[in-house]
Structure formats: C-alpha cells, structure tokens
C-alpha cells in the first residue's frame, strides 16, 4: 500500500519535471529570438543613420535635468504661480491643435480629415482657455507680491 | 519657412519656457519670467502657422476657437478668488489632458498633416508615442476632474474606498498596456479607443480613494502627468517645444509632489494608495474633557500690544474665513506700536503648494515678512506670542513626541516654544488628521473661539482704542 503511494508520487514528480523542462526550452527559444531582433536593431543603428527619435530622447532627457535644477531654485513662496505658469506653458500642445485644425478637409475621402479638424478645434478651444487663463492669472498673482515699504 | 528654421524656433520657444521658470526664483524677477513664457508661446504659435500656412477658412476656424477659449480663460483669470486657485489649476490640468487625447486622435485620423505617414500607414514608433500620450492625457483629464470636484466641494473630500481597489487598478493598468501594444502593432482605431476609455476609468479610480488632506500632493502629481502627456504628444509630432516643455512640467510637478509628501512625512506610495483622512470619526471617539484657557479678543489685544515679537501662523482655516485682510490690518497696528511681526508658513498649509503665500500677498502682506518653516522655526523661542489662525496639525507637538500618532515624524512649527500661544479656532474639533492637539491644554495657551475673521476684527478694534 505504502509503496503504491510512493510510486504515484514519483510519477507525478517525473511529469512535473518534464513539463518544467519543456517550459525552459520554450523560454530559451523566445530569448534567442529576442536577442536576434535586438542585434538586428543595433546593427541598423550603427550602420544606417541614427533614428531622429533618439535625438528627441536625448533632448527630452536633458530637459528633465534642466527642469529638475530650475524648479529646485524656485522659491517656495512662488509655488502656486509656478503651477499656474507650468499649466500655461504645457498648453504649447496648441501646436498640435493648430496642425489639426489646418488639415485640408478634402485631403482624403475616408472622412478622417474632417474628424481631425473637429478634434483639433475642441483642443484649440481648451488650450486657449489655458494659455490666456494661465498666463493672466499668473500675472495677477505675481503683481500682488510686494516688498516691505 | 524651412523645416530647419522651424526646429530652431521651437527650440527657442523651449528655452524661453526654461527662462520663465527660472524667473520664479525670486518675486523680483518673476514677472519678467512670465513675459518670457508668453513670448515663447507666441513664437511656437507663429512658427506653426508659418510652417503650415492654413487656408483662409481654416484660419477663421482657428481664430474663432482661440477667441472662444481665450475669452473664457481671460474671464476666469480675472474673476477667480485666490482661495479657489487649487480647483482652477486642477481644472486647467484637465484641459491639457483632454487636449492631448484630442490631438492624438487628430494625428491618428489625419497623419499626413502631422508628417507621420498616411492614413493606415503610420510608423510603428509614432503609434506607440501617440497612444502613450493619449493614455497619460486621459488619466490626467479624468483624475483632474475628480480632484477639481473634491477641491470645489462638488463631491465629498472624504476618500471613497472601493472594495478590491488595488486589484482593479492593477488590472486596468495591465489592460491599458495590452491595448497600447495591440494598437501599436495593428494600427486599428478600435484599440486606440479602448486605450483612451480604460485610461479615463483609471484616472477616476486612482484619484477617488485619496482624501482631501492629500489634495496638495494630487494636484502636484496631476501637474506632472499633464507634462508627461504633453511630452508624449511632442514625440509623436517630433516637436522640440513640446518635448522640452513636457519634460520641464513633468519634473516640476514631480518635485512639488515630493516637497508636499516631505511636508507631511508621508511616502508618495502611501498617498497614491489613498485612504488617508477618513479615520477622523474613529479618532475623535473619545472626546477630551480637560479644561482649556479661553480668552477674549481684548485679552489677546492686550497681550500682543505688550509683546516685542509676534509670529503669525496662518492655516487653511484663515483662508476659509477670508480673514487675511483683517489679519494684515492687525499686523499694521501692532507694527505701529513697535512690535516685530513675522509670518511662518508650513509647507503643506493651504490646499496647494505656496497657496498661503498667495493669500497673504493678496492681502498686501510684504513677502519679506513671510518665512518658510526651516527659516523661522528657531525664532519661536525668542517670540513673545505665536498667533495661530486656522492651523492645527502643523503645530501639534505629538508629531515629535508620540510615535503612535498618525502625524508622527511630520515637520511642525515649534509654536510651543513661544511665551504665549494664541489659537484662533471655530471649536475644539481636531484637524484633518483627526489628532488631538496637546498644545490646547497647556497653561501658556489661550484659545479664542469663533469665526477667525470676526475675532481678528474685534482684536483690531481693541488695538485701535
């Protein structure tokens, strides 16, 4: 009786081991494929020109650092105007809205251009609230800060 | 206009925005900075119009959009009360978020206008950046709307705790990533729609469990998100002004969140997970019956007239009572009698970073009389009077002495070291954190109950006699 159970347990363990081995094989082949893709990508980067996205990433990374040091130098007394002015400047997304509104609606027959124009129009209205509201309310707050006397 | 010139002009706009933030390092240079920001925006808009000259009808369409939006914005900026700044900023964040979603949608529908391919044949990288920008934008939008409603008290500031909310958020986050990958590989608008939809829901479920006390962190955090959303769209359009601005705003919001968390001695993660500020009822279960020393406005006026140095500690309660103008009048009268008056601001006083400074500036309090915690804390020991108006938790010594207290470890203003502490409060209620303040029961503390504005006006009257 006892030996039967032992036999069963051994059998189960053997099957589990087999399944694990198969999984490991699979993982191995996936990682091989990944490595091939990565190698192809990097050789492309070295021989062909650098992707403009990489330049954009470089500028982005530098701007994060500039932002870090500039914002730490902002006096805590002006943290509220800092938020309202960052709000206003992040509305520079207006350039995307302008491009969308300026789409030629007859450019393609699928009707996508018409949608783009309306999306752009709503976005333009929203960011205009932000640009005018953000800069003006910042100006209003900053004009309140007065020195003694 | 050539493409190269346009890139350089966008870069110039980005640099002007950096100078705009740099100007805020001191109130003296700040307005110059704001002007740089406006010029930068003008450069970016003009460059876009010159680069892709719109048709006449397209131009009229643009002008009407700017006129409607700009008119509303200008009216908001002129009429908003300074106490309402946090909700206005939250609302503005939501607009940036929604604009990011809409621009991503437009870029998907008319890629030829953005120079990223033809409909149905957009580059894979652009698809990824587009959906990422749209997702962050959508989270910013719905999250900011919730924050706006909580700040404007259009919904309860109490944390709303869904069962299994962490599981829900993790599942939504995973679904979001899955849909982004599906969209980037299939270029089907259906997946972009799902990305935006799930991100809207995620924005709501992320912000809803966070309580009113943590709103300064949330507003800063959404500020940061709106920046990352703008950067995502900037990558899609390959626009340097957007990429630089997005990075600036993203790191600015992140730093403000960090400062706010440090001011409350809370970890960023615990704020995000939410739930803080809802235990008030449980904590005040045992009502204190110990006696406190109560005083009248005349007593307070007498004590302050005979003081050499007074430090005023304003909190959000002062803003709610609109007592800042009366407070400045009181300070003027005291200064005339030769008393030295200073203001001490805790980093998390008010509903957003720097809120209290703006409210005091609005009441014509000179900014060189207003000090941050680390600059003034050592001066309380030499002060004759600490005048605490509408603040509570930020003065509570149990943050230093009682490891069991929920606010233990939070930096506090050492008002207890002043010879006399005057507390202006509506009643004996505890603050946001729901903790009893030991200071109320000290022999050198005097409580002045009632509406802060009325009490200060009575003190002014007594001083004028």
Automatic annotation (TrEMBL), chain A:
Transmembrane parts of this sequence: 53-72, 84-103, 115-138
A GO CC term attached to the entry: plasma membrane
Domain NAD(P) transhydrogenase alpha subunit C-terminal: 57-147
Membrane topology field: Multi-pass membrane protein
Source species, domain of life: Bacteria
Places the protein is found: Cell inner membrane
GO molecular function, a single term: NADP binding
GO biological process, one term: NADPH regeneration
First-level EC class: translocase
Keywords: Cell inner membrane, Cell membrane, Membrane, NAD, NADP, Translocase, Transmembrane, Transmembrane helix
Reaction catalyzed: NAD(+) + NADPH + H(+)(in) = NADH + NADP(+) + H(+)(out)
EC number: 7.1.1.1
Function recorded in the entry: The transhydrogenation between NADH and NADP is coupled to respiration and ATP hydrolysis and functions as a proton pump across the membrane.
Protein name in the entry: proton-translocating NAD(P)(+) transhydrogenase
Organism of derivation: Methylosinus sporium
TrEMBL record, chain B:
Localization per Swiss-Prot or TrEMBL: Cell inner membrane
Enzyme class, UniProt record, top EC level: translocase
Membrane topology, as annotated: Multi-pass membrane protein
Keywords noted in UniProt: Cell inner membrane, Cell membrane, Membrane, NAD, NADP, Translocase, Transmembrane, Transmembrane helix
Transmembrane segments: 6-23, 35-53, 59-77, 89-110, 130-148, 168-184, 190-210
Domain of life: Bacteria
Main location: membrane
Start and end residues of each NADP transhydrogenase beta-like domain: 8-461
An MF annotation (GO) of this entry: proton-translocating NAD(P)+ transhydrogenase activity
CC annotations in GO: plasma membrane
Catalytic activity of the protein: NAD(+) + NADPH + H(+)(in) = NADH + NADP(+) + H(+)(out)
Enzyme Commission code: 7.1.1.1
SUBUNIT field: Complex of an alpha and a beta chain; in Rhodospirillum, the alpha chain seems to be made of two subunits.
PANTHER family in the record: NAD(P) TRANSHYDROGENASE SUBUNIT BETA
Function: The transhydrogenation between NADH and NADP is coupled to respiration and ATP hydrolysis and functions as a proton pump across the membrane.
Homology family: Belongs to the PNT beta subunit family.
Name this polypeptide is given: NAD(P) transhydrogenase subunit beta
Lineage, opening ranks: Bacteria, Pseudomonadati, Pseudomonadota, Alphaproteobacteria, Hyphomicrobiales
